[in-house]
TrEMBL record:
Highest taxon above the source species: Bacteria
PROSITE patterns: PROKAR_LIPOPROTEIN (PS51257)
Lineage: Bacteria, candidate division CPR1
Signal peptide residues on this chain, from the entry's feature table: 1-22
Name of this chain's protein: Lipoprotein
This protein's record includes keyword Signal: yes
Keywords: Signal
Amino acid sequence: MIKNNPILKMACIFFISLFLFGCCTTVKNKLNDPVFQTENQPIRTLSIFAYKNNNISDTEIISIVSETSRYLEKQIGVRLEVKKILFSKTEYTFDYEKLLIDLYNEYVEHLNAYENGNDNYDLIVYFHILDPMQFAKEESIKTMMIPVWEGIIDDYYRRYMALKHKDPWILLHEIFHCFILTHDHSDCGIMFPLQGQIFPFLTNLKFRSYYLGNDDRKEALKNKFRNFNNLEKVGCKSEYP
């Protein structure tokens, strides 16, 4: 009966999400603890090279990054700073592997053409924002209980990422992947792999956490000062691109 009833499907997602986040212990209640705050020191600032399409403005990008930075700094002592914003020639595709490879190649071409091959950025973020038709198509797919990616990060360097929505939560989730390297997702907090969205098209009505689980924070702090520019493999993928 659930299989053929979209309302029951959404109800199941609602209660499963409520149960998971209700039973989960995150660092949210520790943010004002002096010991916790000391563990976040010293502060690290990450530089972002941002690509965008026509569906988002520079001001919106800076606002999203600023909001994301606020959550990062409170939890692991990391700030974000947008250093450059350019239009991307990488086009919309549902194939996230192709998208990430195209993004990687576009970035390398830019460095060689305009920055003497010098890689002076930490994270490369493509704000690959959906237009209304693309958004409607993907929200319709969700009603059939088919997974749809909203944000992705490469699983080799863990620094190239793309977002489909103007949502700081998605950027925050992907950036935490840069520092949590022993596993992809968790059963607690922001690194839980799914969001509980009650109704399609109403993307603001979601059950989700902005905070790390305790174990994930420990690993993020351990890898907080990893070097993003040494081009060494840190993820699970065997080669890239």
